[in-house]
Amino acid sequence: MSEINSPQQIVDYVDHAALNKAALPFSRLLVMAMLGGAFIGLGGLLAIVVTGGSTELLASNPGLAKLLFGALFPLGFIAVVLTGADLFTSNCATQVVSLWRKNLKPVQVLRVWCVSYSGNFVGACLAAWAFTHMTQLFPAGQPSTQYLISVAEHKLANPFMVSFMRGVLANLLVCIATWQGYSAKDTLGRMLGIWFPVMAFVALGMEHSIANMFFIPAAMLAGLDITWGHFFTANLLPVTLGNIVGGAVFVGLPYAWIYAKSQKPSAVTK
């Protein structure tokens, strides 16, 4: 037996999983998405606390500090995939496979995207409130608090097109991580397949809409003085659009076209 699933098997499995997700009741999909947003927040929390507390490393070797941040952040993505939670950015690619194969209608894809995005937003914001504000992990004046606020300020300062293109590359790598995770037939293999691309997009400073739903509200709760409207227009809108393009156009559509026809029921190990 092969130790990995073939690309054809992965795309067939993605198609099957997308159909199952589209058939879920609203309440189940929403709760799965809330869990996904919260898990991403936990990965972000770990990365901020550890990297933000490494003040000497930040001052002496910022490149290595970025690698440290990227190395810790995938905790949330691994949890999403291995526990069956839901993530909007992955759906940008997976739902398009079924759409291309005409197994789903556009309105069904939009429903999954909208419910997933909304649930991720609620879950990430709840994580920011419950796990940063209520735990008092970021008191005023602490290095980790200053680092959290500086990360958020940097994300909000980028021009629209810069945030958009960073969103494209971020979700291209996230969806590659999803594909690679499905390629493995054991837990460790899936974890490694997910970890490398996610680590790369974070260390490169790319933009992920669901992660930003945690980082920026957490920074607001820690003292960053901005409005929700500014958050939406300066960061979340361009990053979300970029994530859609990165997942749907650069991963979902090419693989749906390359492996256009399903061969047989997928043998992918979940």
UniProtKB/TrEMBL annotation:
Keyword Signal: no
Keywords assigned: Membrane, Transmembrane, Transmembrane helix, Transport
Pfam family, one: Form_Nir_trans
Chief place of localization: membrane
Superkingdom as given in the UniProt entry: Bacteria
A single cellular component GO annotation: plasma membrane
Membrane topology classification: Multi-pass membrane protein
Molecular-function GO terms, alphabetical: formate transmembrane transporter activity
Compartment list: Membrane
Entry keyword annotation includes GTP-binding: no
Signal peptide (from-to): none
Transmembrane segments: 29-52, 64-88, 109-131, 160-182, 194-216, 236-260
InterPro entries the record matches: Aquaporin-like, For/NO2_transpt, For/NO2_transpt_CS
Family membership: Belongs to the FNT transporter (TC 1.A.16) family.
Classification via PANTHER family: FORMATE TRANSPORTER-RELATED, FORMATE_NITRATE FAMILY TRANSPORTER (EUROFUNG)
Protein name listed in UniProt: Formate/nitrite transporter family protein
Organism whose genome encodes this protein: Iodobacter ciconiae
Taxon lineage: Bacteria, Pseudomonadati, Pseudomonadota, Betaproteobacteria, Neisseriales
